[in-house]
Amino acid sequence: MTPRSPLRSAQSSADNRANVLQGLLIAAIVIGGLYFGQEILLPLAVAILLSFVLTPPLLLLQRIKVPRVLAVVVVVAIAFSILGGLGWLVSREATKLAADLPNYRFTLSQKIRLLRETTAESQVLKKAGDVLEDLEAELEQPAAPGAASAPGAEDAGQEAKPIPVEIRVPEPTGLDFYRAIAGTVLPPLVTAGVILLFVVFILLQREDLRDRLIRLFGASDLQRATATMSEAATRLSHYFLRQVLVNAAYGTLIGVALWAIGMPSAIAWGILAMVMRFVPYVGSYVAAALPVLIAAAIDPGWTMVLMVISLFVVGEFTMGQVVEPLVYGRGTGVTPIAVIGSTVFWTWLWGPLGLLIATPMTVCLAVLGRHVDGLRFFDVLLGDQPALSPEQSFYRHTLIGDASDATYQAELALKDKSLLAYLDDVALGGLAYAERDRARGRLEDEQAERIAETVTEILENLDAFEPKRWFSRLRRHLEHAGAENDQGSNSTDEPETEDAHVVDPESLAPGWNEGTPILCIGARSGLDEAAALMLARLLSKRGLGAEALPPSAVAAGNIETLASATAKLVCLSYLGFGGGPVQIRYAVRRLRRILPEGTLIVVAYWVGDGEEDTAAKMLDVVQADAYASSLHEAVSICEKAATGDLKPAMRDGNGTDSAAPVVPVPPRPKAASKRKAGPAPV
């Protein structure tokens, strides 16, 4: 292990600090620009979202040969007519409701008085309130009669009298009246006009804007950038259109149901429910507050109140748990914490309108992050895909010694794959990360030992675990139903046969069914020993006696003890190439001089994908009987040796192979746990 230069480490730390400060500075500038540019950026953001919603109907009109300009005019006119009509309906219903509110005052006051009389805690609260009022009166009283007072204070108090002040406001003129109306009505109309203008030009210049974004973010790979931007725009358009339709259906359902039970202004409550449902998680229940209050005011009993509450609860549950999964598929692609955080952020930044557009903006940024390399950090921050790969997650859990959580993740993975596949793809991959950090001097020996101990604990926890894969088989069967080549069902059958496979004792060669015929030795460190322990556990599950030994077993002072071993095969475990093939060759030579004649020596290079060819070239250099680059290959070699299909290589006096056997090793299975690159569903 070559330690890093202090100068290089200091330079790397300085670069990291500079990158962090640069990122914080850019974030501060962007947030400041969003805040101070609210007057322009907020209408632009709303216009972009509306353009996503209006793009599918616009494309539909263009497919039936409607001219582009005419199609844009028709779609925008219909959309803003609907929005204007909804606003007019809400205004009319609100005016009518305000006129009827005095009629509901008596019923509401009666219910408040009834609640005060029937609540057991009301007397306690009343007494506490009386005590607080008495204390406040005592504090406001003047000093005691015996206290000294300034001479003439009483006369001064009698002479000081308040001077009455009267404020007279002049009668408003006609110009003031129109100015007040204009100050209230004109700002929303100006904002609506700016949004309308943006929407029209975005729809008219849609292709040109997309080309400019492609030039900005993906000029180096035009084909990929074009495909990803087109797919991202299509996904966002369909998602936002579906969200508008789902929320409109929810608002219609609420309005019709409220009208059916006799609620006044049912249209206004339906529109409010539709709009507030754009607010995630709590929007529907916030919209239910006013209808519940009105129901309590107009109904002498509590029947209507309970009906309104039940209507909103059942409606939200049905839309959220039944309708949306069918319409959206696997979800919005955004984590719940990201939705909540973005809701707070956009509300703080842009007020109530930011609250409504928070979720669409978050989904838009997450989808763009999946497709645009320059915005990849949005996918990491907001997307619902795991931030770490399974191998990185395994390494993180073992690095902190969290065996329980790592075992839980392994049990989830074992529902879809075998233990051999999991250890080969995930566990060995995690140990490879650890070995890489150890080689670069970023992993201390104590941390490496902790990782090895955690891996041992994980394997012990998994010994008695028997996964139930019937649900996985059913799910994959439904996913691949009707396909000509159902790969999902094959993958669910393979893990069970792979883990359940046990070598027939009658097929074993002489001496392989006695004692411990296989020794798996960690060659250099605790990480190598952890990989050797994985191999030993897998071989034991197949009925082959195997034991894992620490690196001290091949140390200069202890290697002689292996001379009395009854092992038929010794496997040296290396995570990576270590000191190179020369060092490994000397270790093999020492073992060959000490071990009994006929003992097989296998060198396992636990290398990553793409390094198998390099490891294969080392076989002749290290002069081992066989090599393996994965647990799958190592298990196969041990099984062949146990059944007599693998013989030691014949060597001449110089110790070189004269007829090294060709070991038919099956190809290494590809990791099923690694995520494939490609667009994730919205």
Outline of this structure?
With about 675 residues, the chain is mostly helical. Helices cover about 65% and strands about 5% of the residues.
Q: Report the average pLDDT across residues.
A: 75
Largest sheet: 5 strands, parallel
Number of strands: 7
What structural category do the secondary elements indicate?
mainly alpha
Please state roughly what percent of the residues sit in beta strands, choosing from under 5%, 5-15%, 15-25%, 25-35%, 35-45% or over 45%.
Answer: under 5%
What helical percentage do the residues reach? Answer: 55-70%
Rg for CA atoms: 37 Å
End-to-end separation in angstroms reads 46 Å
Task: Pick out the low-confidence regions.
Answer: 469-497, 651-682
The rough form would be described as elongated
Strand order in the sheet with the most strands: 2-1-3-4-5
Output the number of helix runs.
26
What this model shows, in words?
This protein starts with 5 loop residues before the first helix and ends in a 23-residue tail after the last strand. A 5-stranded parallel sheet has the order 2-1-3-4-5, with helices on both faces. Strands 6-7 form a two-stranded antiparallel sheet. It is 65% helix and 4% strand. Strand 6 (650-651) and strand 7 (657-659) form a beta hairpin. It is mainly alpha-helical and 682 residues long. It has helices at residues 6-36, 38-63, 68-100, 105-118, 121-140, 153-159, 174-204, 206-218, 222-260, 266-276, 283-287, 289-298, 303-328, 336-371, 376-382, 390-399, 403-413, 419-439, 445-462, 470-479, 487-500, 526-541, 581-594, 612-617, 619-622, 631-642; strands spanning 518-522, 546-549, 569-574, 600-605, 626-628, 650-651, 657-659. The protein is built from 26 helices and 7 strands. The model is unreliable at 469-497 and 651-682 (pLDDT under 50). Among the domains are: 232-382, no CATH class; 390-472 and 490-495; 502-649, Cobalamin-binding domain (Rossmann fold), CATH 3.40.50. Helix 8 (206-218) crosses helix 9, helix 16 (390-399) packs across helix 18 (419-439) and helix 17 (403-413) packs across helix 19.
